[in-house]
Amino acid sequence: MHQLLSIITIVAIQYFPQRVNAQPAIPSDSIQQVVAAKLMTNYPDGNFYTERLISRAELASIMVKAFRLDKRQAISKENLVVPDVTPSNPAFNDIQIVLKTEIMKGYRGNMFFPNQKVTRAEALAIFAQAYGVFQFPDDTVNEILASHPDAQTIPDWARKAIATVISEGFVNTDTQGNIAPLKPMTRGDMAYVLSKYLQRQQPQPETPEAPPAPNR
Question: DSSP secondary-structure letter at 202?
């Protein structure tokens, strides 16, 4: 009997691992803010589904809306031939825009892979590309990322971009400060980034002028 219980325990651990260092819950007001701004939408049943993953096509559409990429001059270029994204694809125009503006890149053979899920590193780097990557020197990048235990797992190509969004306070981390760059980007993660970006766009109260010094 004890042997049977041990086997069951091992199987349970193997196939149902506990989640460790999970990202904290996304505040509901962050989701409401993003939905109100029409940068993301609820599903037809009215739920947002924070744990669902973001595809490349979805990310393209979000970037176009968030940064008004459709207003950039580059979109006047001729449409690109993208074999796996035909005009019948609902995200066709948005994918054309992110490719023309070079906010996102295609793959070999001009393939886009619209249904491929993106990692947090990929999504954050693409967001930073649209936002404007700060040209920090390497020492500054390392200093910004040093407080995050898993910073060494950030791909080299994404380090400067992720340092940008970290420095701007756009990234949700777990309780230990892990960025989890190789994990898939969820809708909740994206909503958090967008909500912080929207807050940054709101006009800040003016700093009151200091009263004049008294005459002596």
Answer: S
